[in-house]
Amino acid sequence: MDAKARNCLLQHREALEKDIKTSYIMDYMISDGVLTVSEEEKVKNEPTRQQKAAMLIKMILKKDNYCYISFYKALLQEGYKDLAALLHGGIPVLSSSNGKDSLVGVTSYVKTVLCEGGVPQRPVVFVTRKKLVHAIRQKLLKLDGEPGWVTIYGMAGCGKSVLAAEAVRDHTLLEGCFPGGVHWLSVGKQDKSGLLMKLQNLCTRLDQDESFSQRLPLNIEEAKDRLRILMLRKHPRSLLILDDVWDPWVLKAFDNQCQILLTTRDRSVTDSVMGPKYVIPVESGLGKEKGLEILSLFVNMKKADLPEQAHSIIKECKGSPLVVSLIGALLRDFPNRWEYYLRQLQNKQFKRIRKCSSYDYEALDEAMSISVEMLREDIKDYYTDLSILQKDVKVPTKVLCILWDMETEEVEDILQEFVNKSLLFCDRNGKSFRYYLHDLQVDFLTEKNRSQLQDLHRKIITQFQRHHRLHTLSPDQEDCMYWYNFLAYHMASANMHKELCALMFSLDWIKAKTELVGPAHLIHEFVEYRHILDEKEISVCSQDCSVCENFQEFLSLNGHLLGRQPFPNIVQLGLCEPETSEVYQQAKLQAKQEVDNGMLYLEWINKKNIKNLSRLVVRPHTDAVYHACFSGDGQRIASCGADKTLQVFKAETGEKLLEIKAHEDEVLCCAFSTDDRFIATCSVDKKVKIWNSMTGELVHTYDEHSEQVNCCHFTNNSHHLLLATGSSDSFLKLWDLNEKDCRNTMFGHTNSVNHCRFSPDDKLLASCSADGSLKLWDVKSANERKSINVKQFFISSEEPQEDMEVIVKCCSWSSDGARIMVAAKNKIFLVDVHTCGLLAEIHTGHHSTIQYCDFSPSNHLAVVALSQYCVELWETKKVCKNSGIVLKQEIDVLFQENEVMILAVDNMRRLQLINGKTGQIDYLTEAQVSSCCLSPHLQYVALGGEDGAIKILELLNNRIFQSKIGHKSAVRHVQFTTDGKTLISSSDDSVIQVWNWQSEEYVFLQAHQEAVKDFRLLRNSRLLSWSFDGTVKVWNIITGRIEKDFVCHQDTVLSCDISPDATKFSSTSADKTAKIWSFELLSPLHELRGHKGCVRCSVFSGDSTLLATGDDNGEIRIWSVSNGELLHLCAPISVEEGAATHGGWVTDLCFSPDSKMLVSAEGSLKWWNAVTGESAQTFYTNGTNLKKIHVSPDFKTYVTVDNLGILYILQVLE
Fold it and tell me: Where does ATP bind (predicted)?
C-alpha cells in the first residue's frame, strides 16, 4: 500500500473504528476479491463491534492499494459518505483502462449509478446467463433514446429480476443510452392505494431536493404527471425498471413517454400502453450447465468434480435459480449430504403447499422445507416470524429489532444467516438495510404457518406498543414509514378489532399519517377494514357504525386539504364537523387542551343552521370513480370507474337505480343523451356501448377503435342523436345510433384524444389531445376547421417550447358558442372561437393539475383541480341554482354587546336579518338588491338596487322611505352616518349621494371620472372616496365640495384605509403598489413596493404604527408606518413564479385591538401573528374567493360568506 494511503488510514483509524459496521463492508470486499472468507471469520470472532472494526482495519493496513480502494468504495456503497470523504485524499492512482475497476470488471461509474437508482446487487452466488443478458441489452439499445417498453417475461422464480439488474450492469450501455441514470421500482401485486404509495416513494427518490414540489402527489393521475415531469426535466434519458408487474392497469401510471424495462409473468401486460414494445422470454429457467455452475460455486468445487447426484438434483430443481440456490446453500454447510437432499427432493415427502399458483417448480416446497428444517434451532422461530411480511415490501432492520427485542447487530447477524441460505434477500443501498422475501417464499411461509398467523401478527403489535407510542413516531426514524403503512394491516390480521378501531378513529393517527403520505391510503384502509370498523360491539364510542362513516367522510371531504403544504391544522378541520360527529368531539377535546397553551381555534357557531352542509356523499363503486354526470333533468347521476361498472342513482337521495357490469376493463367515461333515454359508456377494452338508461338493457356495442376509448359525448339536439368518441388511437369517431357502423372518422391528432364536446348548435365538435392541441371539426363533413396550439400559451423564457409537454385535458363551450374554455396542466384558457385569440387565462398554482373544466349554462366557471378530492368553483351562480337558499356575498354585520346581527340577500331576492347567536331569520322584503346596510342602533335597513334605487326600511313598523333621485346604475355601497339620519351611497355612475332621508335633502359629490370603488366616513362631516380613475378625494358632505384631491395611482385605486389617529390614510392599486399619505400633504409619505400582484386591500393597526397590505398572489406584507420599511412577509410557503399558495386573492384584512394579531380573507380565513409574521390558524371554508371579513371589536367573532353562499359565524374557542 502507498505510504500516502497508509498514513490516511492511520490518521482516521479512530473515527472508522468508532462508526463502521463490518458485516456488509466485508461482503463488498470479498466480492472484490481483496478479503478472504477466513479473514472475514476472524473479524466476526471479535466480541464487540468496535473490536471487529479495529481487526478489519488492521488487516487492510497489511494489504495493497486495491484493498484500500475496495474499502473506500464499500464505505460509499453502505452510506458512510462522511467517512469515505476522510479517505478520499489518500486514494492511490491505479493504471486501468477506461476507468474500469480491474477487480470485478464493473466500473465505479456503473456501481454509483446502480446504487443511487436502487438496483439490487448480485445474489450471494451468481452465474451469468450471457445470451439472455445480451438479448436484453440489444432490446434496450433499440429504444435509442425514445420512449418504449422492453419486457422480460417468464414464470415465477426463473431469475427475471437478476437478469434485469445484470443487463444494466454495463458501462457502455449506461453512458451511451441512459446517461440520466437507472431507477428501480419493485411493483408486485398492487391495488390502487398500494400503487400510489409506490409512486409517491419513487417521486420522492427522484426529487430529493424537493425542487419540483414540497408535497406528495395525492392520487395516481397526479403522480403520473409528477413522474413525467421529473423524468423529463430532472432525469432525461434515464431508464425506469419496473420489477414484477402483474396487472396491465398498473402500467398506465407509467405510460408517460419514459424508457421502461419491466419484468412480468404475463406477456400481455403491455397491450394497454402506447409506444414501441420489445419482448425477451425467459421460459426455461436455468439450463443444466448453469445449474451445475451455481452448485459448484456454493460448494467451492469445479464443475467436473461434482458428484453424480448433482446432475439429478438439477433435474429435480427444474431450472429454478431460487431452488438451486436453496439446495446449494444447504450443501455449502453440509457438503456430504448430496444423496440425502436428492432423496428428499425425489420423495416429495413435504406435501405440496401451494394449492393454486402460477409457479410451476414443484421442488420449491421441498427445498424451502429442507432449508428451514436445517436452520439452527435457536433461529428457526425467527424465520417463522417473517410469515407476516407482505409481498414486495422491504422491511427496515429496526422493525425486526422491535419484533425480537434485540440490538441491531444481533438482528443483522440472524438475518445474514437467512440471506446466506437464500431464505431471505437484503437491499443494501445506503446505511440502513432492508430485508424482503421472494413472493414464492411468502406464499410458502403463509401456507405453512397459517394456523399461527393471527398470533404472529398479534406479537408484532404487542412489541410495537411496548417500544412506541403513536405520537412518538418521527419521520426521521427508519421504521416510521413501515408502521404508518402497515400497522392497521397487522392489527386487522391479528383480529385486534378494538385496537384497530382506536387507531383508525384517532385524529392524532389521521394527522400523522396524512401528513406523511396524504389521505388516499388512509381512505383505502377505511374501505378495506369497513367490515371490522362497523362492528357495533367493538366500537370505541356510542355512535357505533356511524363513527366509521364520520371519519371516512371527514377524510373524503377534506382530502384536497390534507395533502397540501403547509399541512392544515386537523383539529380546526375537525371542529367544522357536525357536533354529533365523533371527529368533532375528539377535535373539541384536543382544542380545549391546546387553547390553554395559547393556541387559537375557531368554532363555527352557526353550522347546524346551514342546510348546504348536508352534502350527498355516495360511494357506489368499489374502486376509483373516473367520471360522473347528471341527467338532463338533473334527477339522476350516472358514474363509472375502475370496477368496470356503470352505476345510476337518484341525485336527491343517492338511491341506486342501476348497476351494470358494463365492460371487460375500466370504464373511463359515461354520458346521458339529451333526451335522457340513453347512456353511453367507453372503456379501456376499446369498446363503446349504448344502454337504455331506465332498464339497463344494452342497445349497441361499437368496436372500431384500436386503443382505449377515453371520452364520449352526445349532441345537444335529441331529434338526430349523434355520439362522438375519442381514443388513445388518436382518432375521433362519430356514431349514428340508427346505424351499426361508424358514420365518420376524424384524423388529425397525433396523440391520444382526451376529451370532446359538441358546440351548442351541434355544428362543431371540439377535441383535446395529448399532442397539445385543441381542434374544431365540422360535424357535417367531418373535416378539420381550426386547430389551436395550446402549447404556445405556455411559452416563456423558463420553459422552452421544445422541452415542454402539454397535455390538453378538456374543453367546454360557452352557451352562445362564441368562446371555448380549455384546460391544460395548471391553467385554464378562454379562447375566441372565431379568431382563435386568447381572451383570458386562469392560473391555479404550480402544484395543481386541472382534471376537468366546464361552463355552466349561464357561463360561470366550475373547475375540478388539484386532485380527485378538490372542486374549485370560480363563480357561484351554477351552484346556487341547485343548492336551495344561499346568500350573496354582500352582507352587513352589526356587533351589539353579545349579539351578532347579519343583514343579507339570498338567491330568492329576499332580504334576511339573521341573529347570529340564535339562528333566527326574519325575512324583511323582496327586491333586486345590490348592496345593503344596517343603521348603528338596528332601527333601519338601507337597500341599494340593481336599478339605482335607494330605499330605507324601518324595522319596527316596516315603513319604507325611497330616495326620489337615486342613481343611474347599480348601487355598490350604502352606509348610514353615526346618528342614522343620513345615508350615503355610491354607484357605478361615479356619483356619491348624501341623502338626509328625514328632511329629504340631497348633496351630490360629483368629480370622479370613473366608477367609485368605495368610501369611508371621516370625522367632522368629511368623507374619503376612491375610484377607478386613480384618485382619492376628501369631501365635505354638508357642502358637497372637494377639500383634498389626491392623485394616488395611475391605475385603479382598489382600497383605502384611515389610520385610527385620523392623520394618515393608505391607498392600494392594481399597479402593484401601496402608498401611505398624510391628509396634510398631496405627495405620499411612503411608496410601498414589492408586491407581485394587484394590491387589493390594506389596514392600519390599532396604534397606527403598522400597515398590512394583501395582493392577488396571496402575499400579505406588514410595513412600518413611520419609515415605510417592510417588517414581515406573511405567506404560508414561498411563492414561486407568481403562483398563489393560498387559493385566492387577499381581499380583506383586520388587526386585533392590541395590534398583535391579523386576520385575512382570501381563499380561506387566516390568522397571523403580526409580531413574527407566522401563521397562527387557518379556517377552510367550503367555497373560496371570500370578499370581506367582519370582525367584532374584541376580535373574538368573525363573519363572512363564501362564494357558495354559505354564511360563517366564527367564534374564538375559549
Answer: 154-161, 265
